[in-house]
Amino acid sequence: MAGLDYLLFEEAMGYAVFKVKLAQDDVGSRLKEVQEATKDLSKFSKIVELVSFAPFKGASQALENANEISEGIVSEFLKAVLEMNIPKGSEKKKIQLGISDRLLGPSIKEIFPYIDSQSNEVVQDLLRGVRLHAYKLLKELSEGDLERAQLGLSHAYSRAKVKFSVQKNDNHIIQAIALLDQLDKDINTFAMRVKEWYGWHFPELAKLTPDNYTYASLALQIKDKSSLTDESLHDIAAIVNEDAGLAQKIIDTAMISMGQDISEQDMDNVITFAERTVSISDYRKGLYKYLTDKMHTVAPNLTELIGEVVGARLISHAGSLTNLSKQAASTVQILGAEKALFRALKTKGNTPKYGLIYHSSFIGKASAKNKGRISRYLANKCSIASRIDNYSDDPNNTFGLILKKQVEERLNFYDTGAPPMKNADAIKEAIALNGANAVADDSDSDEDVSMVDADSKKEKKEKKEKKDKKEKKEKKDKKEKKDKKEKKRSTDSEESPKKKKSKKSKD
């Protein structure tokens, strides 16, 4: 770009400042000859000139600067580099600095008002050329030094980002709920296949036991229907929840079954597949228990309010508990219904009232006309619960219990009209449940509020006194003006007959 003065080159080994000797423009930078010149060091060295290279003191300083640059913050080290190597401009003629990350521009502008940061296509082309010839442009560097520094910094940066608390980590929740949903689909598919396959041998069993898990377990236990006798009653009853009548009916039906006989090899394959289906179902139960325990550890308030599965789906859809806590309640309400939302916006139809929270028991309890109202209220409480879980050092389910109570009372209010609990009372009750320390903190805050109220009352009193004084003074002034007018009027009336007499005498 015309007028570009300097380039800031961020490297794993440090910061480099280059002076731009030949400025390009947007059109010229796209020419093939100009782009080819970037690859040639002899030509590119005529475009930029190294002003200074400031290496980092160690890996820790490099990691610290990388983290701050990624967040758009100017570190103290970068501030010193820019201050020493870029001359001060004026308000009329500002220094044009090319940077790679446009997020860094406002931070530089805040510290150095005389620097305007640019991050356009021309700047990126120049920085690519600097990066290509870096080991030759930067003094006292050999080929391969920059690559090794980049590799070391990338490893350190990744390790710093991957670190997490074992007790409070939502990554496992996201993976667990995704696996749980996948297992539900797979188990359903496998169970239907078992029914269809084993149904050729014992077709009547599907009507007697509609449950997929029970059916697969019975297929494992029965195997060949001709082997069933009255002695098998106890084993069959154990599978069907100790229902002796159903177990006896299965045995009796097997004796008169219309199914075909199958070979031993075919039966082995059916049983092997049934075993796999049962084992996956057992694993699914263990995974659900794991997810429940994890949700009670990571997000106890959200779990208490809306349940483990729906809460986990909300976290998974948002990407993390932190992301969920940053969402507005209106966004939480339709989370999971994005397709319906954009379809409604495109066709100018009615927007969806709920997304994933539709699976909550509260939505099911509400009447048809109140589903939208309770979903909005529930989303509000979910947003509060997720924020408490995310930002608390040691979260527990105290606030979740109170928030759940509020939602239940709001449902009751829609049906009966009974007034629900107010938010202030709910917070006080939650703090009271949370322990004596929290109550003490709450009392301190109440004292502060009372002091503020007293100060405000005193201030109001003083204002009222001043207002009264002002009104009295205004009334007094008005009265004096009125008296003066009346006095003047009376004097004028006395003088008028005298003037008339004098006029008659003259005549």
From TrEMBL:
Database matches in InterPro entries: Nop56/Nop58, NOP58/56_N, Nop_C, Nop_dom, Nop_dom_sf, NOSIC
GO CC field: box C/D methylation guide snoRNP complex; small-subunit processome
Q: Name one GO molecular function term.
A: snoRNA binding
Compositional bias annotation for Acidic residues: 441-450
Q: Which SUPFAM superfamilies match?
A: Nop domain (SSF89124)
State the source organism's domain of life. Answer: Eukaryota
UniProt biased composition (Basic residues): 460-488, 498-507
Q: Residue ranges of region Disordered?
A: 439-507
Q: Which GO terms describe its biological process?
A: box C/D sno(s)RNA 3'-end processing; snoRNA guided rRNA 2'-O-methylation
Supply the alphabetized keyword list.
Nucleus, Ribonucleoprotein, Ribosome biogenesis
Q: Which residues cross the membrane?
A: none
Boundaries of each Nop domain copy? 298-416
Where would you find this protein in the cell? Nucleus, Nucleolus
The entry's function note states: Required for 60S ribosomal subunit synthesis.
Family to which the UniProt record says this protein belongs: Belongs to the NOP5/NOP56 family.
What name does UniProt use for this protein? Nucleolar protein 56
